[in-house]
Amino acid sequence: MANDLRFQVVGEAFKKKPLDVKAPSERPCEYFGKHVFNREKMYKYLPKDVYNKMVDVIDNGARLDRQVADAVAAGMMAWAKENGVTHYTHWFQPLTEGTAEKHDSFIEHDGKGGMIEEFSGKLLVQQEPDASSFPSGGIRSTFEARGYSAWDPTSPVFIIDDTLIIPTVFISYSGESLDYKAPLLRALKAVNMAATEVCHYFDPAVKKVTSNLGWEQEYFLVDEGLYAARPDLLLTGRTLMGHDSAKNQQMDDHYFGSIPERVAAFMRDLEIQALMLGIPVKTRHNEVAPNQFEVAPIFEDTNLAVDHNMLLMSLMKRVARKHGFRALLHEKPFAGINGSGKHNNWSLSTDTGVLLHAPGKTAEQNLRFATFIVETLMGVYRHNGLLKASIMSATNAHRLGANEAPPAIISSFLGKQLSELLDHIEKADKEDLFSMDGKQGMKLDIPEIPELLIDNTDRNRTSPFAFTGNRFEFRAVGSEANCASAMITLNSAVAEALVSFKKRVDARIKETAKDFEHSGHNATYHAIIDILREDIKVCKPIRFDGNGYSDAWKAEAAKRGLDTETSCPVIFERYLDEDSIRMFESLGVMTKKELEARNEVKWETYTKKIQIEARVLGDLSMNHIIPVATSYQSQLLRNVERMSGVFPKEKASQLNARNLKLIEEIAERTATIETQVEELVEARKVANKIADEHQKAIAYHDTIAPMFDKIRYQIDKLELIVDDGLWPLPKYRELLFIR
Ligand code: ADP
Ligand code: MG
Predict the structure, then answer these.
(1) Please, which residues have CB within 8 angstroms of residue 658's CB and are 6 or more apart in sequence?
(2) Mean pLDDT value of segment 391-398
(3) Closest ligand 1 atom to the C-alpha of 212?
C-alpha cells in the first residue's frame, strides 16, 4: 500500500498559493510603532509632569514612584481601550526558551453587582504569576514557590490583538533572578558605569555609555503539511533522520537568489507586523541553505534589541502559520546543509557617538578607539570559555565547529589595519609615540585610521568574534537562543576589563605624576599607552585572523591556552569557574547562588532535550521505519518466490540475485537498528539513575547523543533502497524545495 499521507501533503504543498498581504495605506515610517506605547504616545496620553518623569526614568534610570505609576497606568489604559484592548499581561523571559505570559482582563467587580474596567499602577508595576512551574534550579524551594514579575519601564509596552503586553523582569521572592532580563539589565548598567569612567579620560562631558545590539536572525521555513507529517520535526525541532537530497546547497543558487512568492508574502506580512510593533526590521534575504532565510533590524540599545528579538521570534512563528508554513528556529534542522545562527552585532556608544567607530581625526579619538578595542579583547580573552558557555546549548552544539559555522573556539578577527594599529602601539618606540609639537605641546603618534575600516570587505567568515568596521560581530550565537545570554556575558566581561583598566591607569598616573610635571606631556595619555601596551601583549592569544576551521588552529589554540572544549555540559562548567563568579559578583550581575541555580537549569534542559530526541528516534525507528522496511522486504520475498516458480532454478537464482541482496541488506539494517535502539534505551536507564544534574547531562552527552548518528545512518541507507511509494516520512528533497 502506498503511503497516502506523504503524497497527499506533498501534493497540497505544491498547490499552495501565496497569501495576498494587504499593505497598510500608510508608509512604513507612518505606521512604525503604531502598536507601541512609545514616547509619542506617552506625550499624548500622559500629563506633562508624568511624561517628564517617565523620560527621566527611561533615560537616566530615575526611580519610579507609586503616583507616577498610577498616572502612567491610566494613560496606557486610555490608549489601550481606544485600540480595543481588553486584557493585559506581564511578559517575561524565563530560563526556558521563548517568553512567558499570563493574561488577565481589566474587569473587576464594581461592588454594585456590575463590572468596571480597571488598571492601576500596582498592576502595571508588579505581578505574581504562578511561577512554580518555571525552571529555577532549586532557588525556589517548595515553601516559597513564588516569584514575581516587575515592570521594566525602559522597554515600552505594546499591543498584540486584544492584549496590552508589559515587558518585565522575573524574580524570586528571595531576590534572585529567574530570567534573562534581570541580569542583562545589571550587566548593561555595569558596562555603562565602567565605560563612562574610561570615557572621562578623553571627554569629561560624556554622561552615559550604551551597549548596542543588532541581531541577524536566520531561520528555515517548511510547509506546514509536510512539517506535520514529520514527528521528529514536530517534537524536537529538527529532523533526526533523512537522507541528503541529491541537490541541496552545492550550487550556491539560493543565497541572494530571488525570494519565492509564498515566502515573499510571508516576509512582507512579518515586516509590516514587526514595524507596527516598533521592531525596526530592515534587511531580508535568502540564506545559503535551501528554504533558509534571514531578517535583520537596525541596531538598538541591547535591552530593547533583546526584547525585540524575542518578540520577532514569536511573531515569526505566528505569521508563518498564517501562510501555511512553520518557521524553524532550531540551529540545525537538517543534516548536511547549513544550520542557523544569530549574529550579534555589538558595540558601545556614548551620548555623543559610537565608541568602536574609528574616527581617524584626532590622535586622542584614535587612542580612545584603541582603548575600547583592546579592553573588549581583554574581556573576550579572559572569559573566552565563559563566552562559549553563554552561547552553548544542546541545539547550538550541532552547529558550532561544523564547517559552516563559527569554530568551537572563541577568537577574534581584527583585520589588517586594526592589527597594524595595535602592533604599532605595542611596539613603537615610546619616545616616537609621544613627540613634542611646538606650542601645542605633546603630540601622539597614533596612526590615522582609514575610513576604509568601515567597509571592511576583508571579513573573515570563520571568526566567532570579528571586528567589522564599527562593531564586533559575535557570530556563535544560536538562532533559537535568547541573545541576552551572550549579551550578559559579553557586556560583563568588557565591564570588568574596563574597571581593571581604569584602576591600573589611575595608579600609573599617580606614580608618574611627578615625572611629568612641567614636561608638557600628558600624564594620563602616557599612563593609558603604558597600560594598553601591557594589555595588547596579554590578550594577543585571542587574536586570530586565519582559518578557524583548520586542525592546525585547534592545536595552536590549545597551545595558546584558549578553551577548546566541545562537550556542551562540560562547557557549562565555565559559569562556575572562580574567575566567572568573581566577575559576575563584583559587577553585581549575578551571585554565586544564582549562577549555580542557573547551571542546574542548563544541565537539566540539556538532558531533557537529548532524552526527548532519544525517545522520538527510538519510536520512529520501531514503528515507522522498521515496519515499512519489513513490508518492502516481504514484497521482495514474494517476488523472489514467484520468480522461482516461473523460471528454471538456475535462471531464477540469477534473476533474483539483486532482490536477494536487498532482502539481506534490509534484514541486516533493521536488525542493527533494533539492537541499537535497545542499547539506547538501556543507556538512558543507566543515565536516568544519576541524581546529580551535572553528571546526568554529561552521561547523556557522552553515552546517548553519540548513538543517534549510528541509528540515523542505518535509517538513511534504508530510505535509499525502500520503495519510495512506501516511505512514510517526507524526504529532504520535499521538505526543502517545495513552495
Ligand atoms: P552583514 O553585512 O553582516 O549582513 P548588515 O549590514 O546586514 O551586516 O548589518 C547587520 C546588523 O549590524 C544590523 O542589525 C545593523 O544595524 C547592525 N549594526 C550596524 N552598525 C552597528 C553598530 N555600530 N553596533 C551594533 N550593531 C550595528
Ligand atoms: Mg553579519
Answers:
(1) none
(2) 96
(3) 25
Q: Vertex 172, ends 168 and 176: CA angle to 5°?
A: 95
Query: Cβ(370)–Cβ(304) under 8 Å?
Result: no
Q: Kindly state the percentage of the chain with pLDDT values over 70.
A: 92
| Distance from residue 214's CA to the centre of ligand 1 (Å) | 6
Which ligand neighbours the alpha carbon of 302 most closely?
1
Q: By alpha-carbon position, which residue is closest to atom 17 of ligand 1?
A: 214
Lowest mean pLDDT segment, chosen from 228-242, 326-340, 458-472, 653-667: 458-472
The pLDDT of residue 473 is 95
d(CA 603, CA 137): 10
Please give the distance, rounded to the nearest whole angstrom, from the Cα atom of residue 347 to the centre of ligand 1. Answer: 10
Burial of 93 (0-12, 13-18, 19+ CB in 10 A): buried
Q: What backbone torsions phi and psi does residue 90 show, to the nearest 5 degrees?
A: -85, 125
Tell me which residue has its CA closest to atom 8 in ligand 1. Answer: 216
Given a cut of 90, whether residue 175 has pLDDT beyond it is: no
| Residue for grid cell 615625572 | 515
Quote the DSSP letter at residue 143: G
- What does the alpha-carbon distance between residue 74 and residue 69 come to, in Å, rounded to a whole number? 9
For ligand 1, atom 11, which residue shows the shortest CA distance? 214
Looking at 161-165, 322-326, 405-409, 549-553, which range is the least confident one?
405-409
CA of 455 to the centre of ligand 1 (A): 12
Distances 356 to 142, 373, 445, 729 between C-alpha atoms, Å: 47, 7, 19, 50
Q: How far apart are CA 320 and CA 266, in angstroms?
A: 6
Quote the CA–CA distance of 42 and 51 in Å, as a whole number: 6
Average pLDDT along the chain = 91
Closest C-alpha among 330, 318, 322 to residue 291 = 330
pLDDT at 440 over 60: no
Ligand 1 atom having least distance to the Cα of 459: 3
Place of cell 515553601: 143
pLDDT at 143: 41
CA-proximal residue: ligand 1, atom 2 (nearest): 468
Question: Residue 278 in contact with residue 305, Cβ under 8 Å?
Answer: no
Q: What is the pLDDT of residues 536-559, one digit of tens each?
A: 999 999 999 988 889 999 999 999
Ligand 2 mean position, distance from CA 212 (Å): 14
Do 687 and 703 touch, CB atoms closer than 8 A? yes
Buried b (16+ CB within 10 A) or exposed e, 49-83: ebbebbeebbeeeeebeeebbbbbbbbbbebbeee
Specify the DSSP element, H or E, that contains 102.
Answer: strand 100-105
Write down all domains in the chain, each with its CATH number in brackets.
32-179 (3.10.20.70), 188-590 (3.30.590.10), 605-735 (1.20.120.1560)
For ligand 2, the distance from its centroid to the CA atom of residue 398, given in whole angstroms, is 20
Q: Cα–Cα distance between 304 and 279 in angstroms, integer?
A: 9
Mean per-residue pLDDT for 517-527?
Answer: 83
Rounded distance between C-alpha atoms, residue 254 and residue 212, angstroms: 31
**Residue 451: pLDDT over 60:** no
Pocket of ligand 1 (CB under 6 A): 212, 214, 216, 283, 296-299, 345-347, 354, 470-471
pLDDT level of residue 441 (50, 70, 90 thresholds) = low
* Residue bearing the CA closest to ligand 1, atom 24: 347
Dist. CA 200–CA 203, nearest whole Å: 5
CB-CB contact of 408 with 488 (8 Å): no
Pick the range with the lowest mean pLDDT from 237-251, 303-317, 500-514, 548-562: 237-251
Distance between CA atoms of residues 183 and 171, nearest Å: 10
> Which ligand neighbours the alpha carbon of 455 most closely?
1
Neighbouring CB atoms inside 10 A of 361's CB total 10
- Rg of the chain on CA atoms, in Å: 29
**Rounded Cα–Cα distance for residues 151 and 156 (Å):** 10
CA of 296 to the centre of ligand 2 (A): 9
Give residue 168 CA to ligand 1 midpoint distance, Å: 27
Note the pLDDT of residue 146.
67
